[in-house]
Amino acid sequence: MKKIGVLLLTLLVVAIFGSCSKDDDVSVTGISLSPKTLTLLKGESQKLNVTITPQNATDTTVTWKTSDPSIATVSTSGVVTAVGAGSATITVTSTDGQFSASCNVTVNVNVASITLSETSLRIEKGDSKTLGATISPDDATNRTIVWSSSNEKVASVDQNGKITALAGGSATITATSADGKAKAQCEVNVFVSVNGISLNQSTLTLIRGQKETLVPTITPSDATTTDIDWSSSNNQLATVNKGVVTALKAGKVTITATTVDGKKTASCEITIKPSEVIDYNPFGDGQNW
């Protein structure tokens, strides 16, 4: 009988203390995350801070989930890792009460390099050429390119990469990523073609042994290549060297100037006399002897 009494007393104590222990549990009433929005570059990681209310809640265990693991993953401790470009939502949920909070994550991918379709370009004044630009990696977020010219007077470039040749000379065209971290360049050489040549004299009379300089004029005046090849139709009658004509023998000869660029020509017809003709009157001043 005594043993039965002790057993009943023991059961009563356990029931009382068990009931008190259960009544002392503190339930979760809410949960929050910090920060609520997050921007990362691909490859970066950051830990999210979770706050459970009340602070003395008994069960503070949580579970983490991502809406898109191809964009951002999350560890069991709340560390978010950026995987690919785009947006994903990270959600944390309390075990007690199933309260949840979210963080919106944006993952950006920087431009690593820019490759231009041409690294050097020779273009005639007045012409245009559009450069192509390839951005790497393919999933780069901001693919905007800023175009610029080192010499706007020689060559301009619009924001589509279209180059316009304005004057003879050189300029460097630069393509720069929006964040300024990636660049590519193209060296542009603008040339001006010769479209004509003229000489200061088209006909000329020389005395054997005399020299005369022919002066060429090339158009346009800003032509890039102004070299001239000189030639004589008969080197026995007259020679020419850099425009200087030397009369050697009586006769008629043609001196020709030919531009190296465009093969434009101009000529001078030269008559060479053996000597200067002097009228002589043996009676002098028209007197008769």
From TrEMBL:
<dbReference type="Pfam" id="PF02368">
    <property type="entry name" value="Big_2"/>
</dbReference>
<feature type="domain" description="BIG2">
    <location>
        <begin position="27"/>
        <end position="104"/>
    </location>
</feature>
<feature type="domain" description="BIG2">
    <location>
        <begin position="193"/>
        <end position="269"/>
    </location>
</feature>
<dbReference type="InterPro" id="IPR045197">
    <property type="entry name" value="NUP210-like"/>
</dbReference>
<dbReference type="InterPro" id="IPR008964">
    <property type="entry name" value="Invasin/intimin_cell_adhesion"/>
</dbReference>
<feature type="domain" description="BIG2">
    <location>
        <begin position="110"/>
        <end position="187"/>
    </location>
</feature>
<dbReference type="InterPro" id="IPR003343">
    <property type="entry name" value="Big_2"/>
</dbReference>
<feature type="signal peptide">
    <location>
        <begin position="1"/>
        <end position="22"/>
    </location>
</feature>
<protein>
    <recommendedName>
        <fullName>BIG2 domain-containing protein</fullName>
    </recommendedName>
</protein>
<keyword id="KW-0732">Signal</keyword>
